[in-house]
């Protein structure tokens, strides 16, 4: 009887473990990304399909207020939205930092920053940090480029850095996100689909 009970417990443990792994699985290149709803700095709940599916995709960027790398890339993020929104790839910025660990990244400070800099894109607060974990985001800034496939689903086609020089935009000679978007405009998969994101680590809740 003890052997039977032990065997049953092992099976249950295996099922629970498998379930947990599925729950915590992060997106990989080629995966279909599900919509989500997070609080935008204007107080509304915002996701990826609020524009009735007219977008060809989204430039999802995990960023924040306080990180020196995020600050260095702020204008470049604004330029990405300005340059590619009309062609169907708007920016969606997400802050997943715990305000207790980084007070400058509180929702109130986010709203102030967005107003001060006149962001033209949503700046969402991932308070539970569930979306960052689902995407597998670990740094700020970190890009996840989504493209609407032939079935109308949003597919992850590029992840990583914006370009190859965080300190000086003028000295960057590889513009990874722009290169990926150019490939997509020619109905090609991005030649460079993954790079290493350079930035501060996301400040996780303790």
The shape, in one word, is globular
Q: Please tally the β strands and state the result.
A: 9
Do you know the CATH architecture?
A: 3-Layer(aba) Sandwich
CATH class: Alpha Beta
Question: What percent of residues adopt helix (DSSP H or I)?
Answer: 25-40%
Give the strand content. 15-25%
CATH topology: Glutaredoxin
- CATH level-four homologous superfamily name: Glutaredoxin
Number of self-contained structural domains:
1
User: How many distinct helices?
Assistant: 5
- The separation of the N and C termini measures 42 Å
Signal peptide: 1-20
InterPro entries: AhpC/TSA (IPR000866), PRX-like1 (IPR047262), Thioredoxin-like_sf (IPR036249), Thioredoxin_domain (IPR013766)
Organism: Rurimicrobium arvi
Domain Thioredoxin: 27-182
Explain how this protein is built.
Residues 27-182 form the Thioredoxin domain. This is Thioredoxin family protein. The structure is a single chain. The protein is α+β, with helices and mostly antiparallel strands and 206 residues long. The protein has one domain (26-201): Glutaredoxin (3-Layer(aba) Sandwich). It has helices at residues 2-24, 68-84, 107-117, 130-135, 176-185; strands spanning 38-40, 45-46, 57-62, 91-95, 123-125, 139-140, 142-148, 154-160, 200-201. The strands form two sheets. A seven-stranded mixed beta sheet has the order 2-1-5-4-3-7-8, with helices on one face. The protein has a two-stranded antiparallel sheet with strand order 6-9. Mean pLDDT is 89; it is low at 1-23.
């Amino acid at each position: 009887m003890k052997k039977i009970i032990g065997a049953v417990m092992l099976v249950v443990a295996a099922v629970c473990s498998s379930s947990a792994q599925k729950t915590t699985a992060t997106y990989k290149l080629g995966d279909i990304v599900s919509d989500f709803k997070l609080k935008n700095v204007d107080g509304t709940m915002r996701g990826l399909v609020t524009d009735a599916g007219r977008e060809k995709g989204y430039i999802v960027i995990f960023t924040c207020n306080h990180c020196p790398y995020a600050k260095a890339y702020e204008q470049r993020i604004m330029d990405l939205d300005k340059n590619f929104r009309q062609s169907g790839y708007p920016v969606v910025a997400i802050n997943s930092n715990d305000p207790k660990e980084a007070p400058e990244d509180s929702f109130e400070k986010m709203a102030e920053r967005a107003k001060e800099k006149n962001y033209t894109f949503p700046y969402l607060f991932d308070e539970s940090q569930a979306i960052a974990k689902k995407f597998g985001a670990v740094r700020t800034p970190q890009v996840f480029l989504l493209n609407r496939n032939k079935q109308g689903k949003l597919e992850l086609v590029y992840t990583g850095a914006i370009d190859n020089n965080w300190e000086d935009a003028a000295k960057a000679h590889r513009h990874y996100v722009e290169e990926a978007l150019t490939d997509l405009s020619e109905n090609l998969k991005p030649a460079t689909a993954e790079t290493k994101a350079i930035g501060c680590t996301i400040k996780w809740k303790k």
